[in-house]
Amino acid sequence: MSTDLSIDADWSAQYIDGEWVAAGDDETIAVEDPSTREVVAEVPSATEGDVDAAYEAAAAAQEEWAEAPPAQRSAVIQQFLQALQEHDEAVVDLLAHEAGGSAIMGETSIQIASDHAGEAATLPRRMKGEHAESNIPGKENIVERGPKGVVTVISPWNFPLNLSARAVLPAIAAGNSVVLKPSTNSPITGGLLFAKLFEKTDLPEGVINVVTGRGSEIGDRVASHPESDVVSFTGSTEVGQHVAGLAGENLAVPAMELGGNNAFVVASDADVDRAVDAATFGSFVHQGQVCISINRHIVHEDVYDEYVEKLTERAEELAVGSAHEPDTVVGPIIDESQRDEMLAYVEETVDAGATLETGGETAEIDGVDDSLVVRPTVLSDVTNDMAAACNEHFGPIAPVIPFSDVDEAVAIANDTEYGLSGAVHAGDLAVAKEIAGRMETGNVHINDQPINDEAHVPFSGIGASGVGEYNSDAFLREITETKWISIQHEPREYPI
């Protein structure tokens, strides 16, 4: 296959055992540009037979790759990073065509993926064992750490590049092989692109395998394959529960980052302008299609009106339109079903008594019928049980909920089954720390917004937001296992 990384390249083959091959039945899936609503590429629609071939290749390649010296595994990841950065403009353009990502989203994706690559390159030298003292005289205890085996990565459509990278790159660095199944909405940037970039490295054949296909057709086989030792999944809680169940039947380790309903708490003494700056980014970047974006704005009644007014002004100033326009901040939603669902949440919330301050409708794009662009939306007079607040709306929607004291703010923030991310703004750092400490969530950020990801800092959710951890040593523990070896140096006395 051509090394071309443009959207016009041939993407009609999947990558198995170092070869580009068609799907078993030669069927393909159309990839639609969310901005233009045009089909821009065709990718294979894999069969269960293709999935089996990918796992067979991964299992066969893994043992030898695990024996590769740490320097060799590190060098391959560094080569991948170099290839990604050399083609960054092409990758940003791919993200615009496939995921509807603005230039901001594309550049952020490159930055975060590069950060994950840089961190992953250090992991081979950090896979250290230990010696442990024994209670038995003359015994030496050694604990070795090695790769799990075959890691399954099922990645999402919203940030396909970096959310694939954070699992694929550490897994390979640690000596595992990988089967990568990207979302049907983003099969190129979440999957096939990785194969092309790894072809520019010295990675042995079979260590990375990419199958593209509909979850309804191959998803269960991917999640439950007997050769899989770890299943990394990012997506909705409902699907994640199903995937984790299938992985568990096979005794594979589940690493699940699932849904969120992230709270953004603004205290009475907060710098409102600073809070609104953070809120504008945290709610509207990439059209709110971020698992850790702000889902609910919980604002003290003393600054509530000012906050709503300023957030509405900022929302109305944001440039909306095609992801291919350089000035666009809020581009298209990924597809019709996502768009229609979020607009329904807005309508239900207004019907329940909330006030629509701005937005709540689609924006026209020249030459495009049935636009997927939703205008940035601000809702006031919202309560926590209204549709736009109690659901993960996953769009450019900002429901603003008032509170009167810290206990009420914490109660509102925690009144959800999710616990992924959150943020607090307050002038008094002690108050901010108190609220942050009481928020039931895996991540919380003070005087910032919840969209943060640093490859060297552990990342996890609680409750319905998932199980397992990502990043640095936290994910290294998910994709490796320990072996206890003891040596009895002196004769041992036994009771019988």
Helix and strand arrangement:
Blueprint: E1 14-16, E2 19-21, E3 28-32, E4 39-44, H1 48-66, H2 70-86, H3 88-99, H4 103-120, E5 130-132, E6 139-147, E7 150-154, H5 160-173, E8 177-181, H6 188-198, E9 208-210, H7 215-224, E10 230-234, H8 237-249, E11 253-257, E12 263-266, H9 272-284, E13 296-300, H10 304-317, H11 336-351, E14 355-358, E15 377-380, H12 387-390, E16 397-403, H13 406-414, E17 418-419, E18 422-425, H14 429-438, E19 445-446, E20 462-463, E21 466-467, H15 472-478, E22 480-488
Parallel strand pairs: 7-8, 7-10, 8-9, 10-11, 12-13, 12-18, 13-16, 15-16, 18-19
Antiparallel strand pairs: 1-2, 3-4, 5-6, 6-22, 11-21, 14-15, 17-20
Helix pairs in contact: 2-4, 3-4, 4-5, 5-6, 7-8, 9-10
Description:
The chain is an alpha/beta fold and 496 residues long. Helices cover 38% and strands 20% of the residues. The strands form six sheets. It has a seven-stranded mixed sheet, sandwiched between helices. The protein has a six-stranded mixed sheet with strand order 9-8-7-10-11-21, sandwiched between helices. Strands 5-6-22 form a three-stranded antiparallel sheet. The longest helix is centred in the N-terminal third of the chain and has 19 residues, at 48-66.
